[in-house]
Amino acid sequence: MRGPFDLNDLASYRQWREHKLDSAPRRIEDILVPLDDPRALTARELAALLERCATANMAIYTSNTVGAEDKEIPRRLGAQLGLQHLDSHWLTDDDAISPISVRGAEERGERKEFIPYTDKPIRWHTDGYYNVPQRTVRGLILHCVQSAAAGGDNQLLDHEIAYILLRDENPDHIRALSQADAMTIPPRSDENGVARAAQPGPVFSIDGEGFLHMRYTARTISIEWRSDAATQAAVAALTRILAAPVPWTLHGRLEPGMGLVCNNVLHDRSGFTETPQRRRLLYRARYHERVAALPATVSG
Fold this sequence. Notes:
The protein is of the alpha+beta class and 300 residues long. Helix content is 27%, strand content 23%. The chain contains 8 helices and 19 strands. Helix 5 crosses helix 6 and helix 6 crosses helix 7 (229-243).
């Protein structure tokens, strides 16, 4: 492999790095796209979403769907963006779209032990880091039906920016975190035995089209990092980089009718408080492909 993610191809990396940092958004407003109805995008709306995802791997949208509890919103939006194959797992609904809410966890007891279905904060992560490689989560849509009474804010960081910051500090950190067993998720057991086998994998990998993928969680329990000194140093460096906001860290909160479309970028969530009138509900759709590339006729 030659290109910006080849540690031996410094010329390609420097050229890509310069363009990436020059074009990377530094305010949440820079990735904001107003939509009328996400279920039926106009050509201009579609182009705006694709452009922001091509530049920053993410876009935030507003829409005129406030109050609509309709899972077709993320499903139809995803289809228009080239997202077709939903990642279904044992905690999703039968339609493979997850309602993320505390109430849902209370109603379905098997969810309430998992942090996304609670009001607790969630540390930096990318989605589906426990999946097998054949079910890698590359695309993600979060659609907000109702925000919490207080809290539930997000930080967002393009994983390509995290890669740059880590590689600039020491290319050996990238080399260590690209090992096939850099991060292992231990097996999960239930009353029937092993429900999910241990899942080793890299943090950084390159897909068949040359795009960078990041598989990561800042959790400190139920995670096993490779024990060699290089990996431990790389993990410590990445933890430190993510602990302090950088100019490209975006901050915001999804309000009703808003949503996030992204190529599974790094994100976190603050804790939140609910009231009987303000029970937080988001629909989450995970996909095995990235958001479609911006057509050449649009990108110019």
